[in-house]
């Protein structure tokens, strides 16, 4: 029992800190407002590391993947399936949230000027900068990711010189991750203080919107896990694939729920794939890659966070914002995989990219912490589905090549 609880220890501590901060803000607003500098210092420390974190982690990951270019068909399939399985839940939850307002008409009253939601969204500025120096700003994270992907591909295709650079990046990435881990020790105090100051001037009714939003996610997760998984399994193996999937998916799902870790569930997932009859060489290649790339649950909750905050701030959720939300959800799912405190860094990604007030970060953290377990279950279970689909796709490609020969 204690072992299961320890898996959620960090989330529990963070939630308690936020609850205490919220209670302090509502009962003693004068005191809570004085705590804001503490929270601001913590956020500034994370802002200082976010650019090197994203640049190095994305570049090193892509550089390592291109070392496996001889497995090109499988890698392309992994990427296509992962992107699709991130887009589908993001679009689905957005449709559900647009039908059932997650904020219930409650508006968050902030003094900070909001930089988004007014006029047309400039996709050119979101995706590129006109100078290298612009890539060093946290406001241009999407452009940084695009350039990091291109750099990673270039390193992977540069032979021995590229391998030396890739090795250096891996070492640097380890150091960056350790810095993030150290900074995250201050998360309960920093975020608790910041949330206290945010809630100091808000209507207590805002608390009820959290329950409504989280409930919406749990309902959507159940529907997606049952219907979506069955559809994916059918695409991967027809009726037999559906039967094999549900016969073997419970153990990985239970492991994911108990550990709240896709990586910890990997051995169980590989065993389940073997029991399902998936070829060992396919499972051994795909599942370790999918652990970091196939994050449908993370994409789903990211999309819900964005539309919830837009509703809470009274901003118009336009078609342009819808499109960029899906893009952010997919990219965020890729970037935060395997990063200590990655889910929290995802909140920074959302806020800085969309120009939202910093006061919304603790609100996003609460939603992310409570929904972490079901999100992980979706990630892990759909890794099995993705492997089914990839096996069927690669087998078809092999047969087509044999016919041509």
Describe the structure.
The chain is mainly alpha-helical and 405 residues long. It has one domain: Proton glutamate symport protein (Orthogonal Bundle). Helix content is 78%, strand content 0%. It is built from 18 helices and no strands. Helix 12 packs across helix 18. It is globular and about 65 Å long. Pfam families: SDF (PF00375). InterPro entries: Na-dicarboxylate_symporter (IPR001991), Na:dicarbo_symporter_sf (IPR036458). This is Sodium:dicarboxylate symporter. GO terms for molecular function: symporter activity. One of its GO terms (cellular component) is plasma membrane.
Question: How do the strands and helices of this protein lay out in sequence?
Answer:
Blueprint: H1 2-6, H2 9-27, H3 29-33, H4 36-66, H5 72-99, H6 123-127, H7 141-156, H8 159-183, H9 187-199, H10 206-248, H11 250-259, H12 266-275, H13 280-293, H14 296-312, H15 319-336, H16 342-354, H17 361-370, H18 372-404
Helix pairs in contact: 2-9, 2-17, 4-7, 4-8, 4-9, 5-10, 5-13, 5-14, 5-15, 5-18, 7-8, 10-18, 11-18, 12-13, 12-18, 13-18, 14-15, 14-18, 15-16, 16-17
InterPro entries: Na-dicarboxylate_symporter (IPR001991), Na:dicarbo_symporter_sf (IPR036458)
GO molecular function: symporter activity
GO biological process, one term: dicarboxylic acid transport
For the biggest sheet, the summary is: none
Average pLDDT score: 80
Helix/sheet category: mainly alpha
Low-confidence stretches: 116-120, 400-405
What proportion of the residues is helical, as a percent range?
over 70%
Distance between the terminal alpha carbons, to the nearest Å? 58 Å
Number of strands: 0
The fraction of residues assigned to DSSP E strands is: under 5%
DSSP helical segment count: 18
- Briefly, what CATH class? Mainly Alpha
Form type: globular
The SSE string, one letter per element, is HHHHHHHHHHHHHHHHHH
CATH topology: Proton glutamate symport protein
| Total tally of structural domains | 1
> What is the rounded Rg?
21 Å
Question: What's the CATH architecture name?
Answer: Orthogonal Bundle
Membrane topology: Multi-pass membrane protein
InterPro entries: Na-dicarboxylate_symporter, Na:dicarbo_symporter_sf
Main location: membrane
Subcellular location: Cell membrane
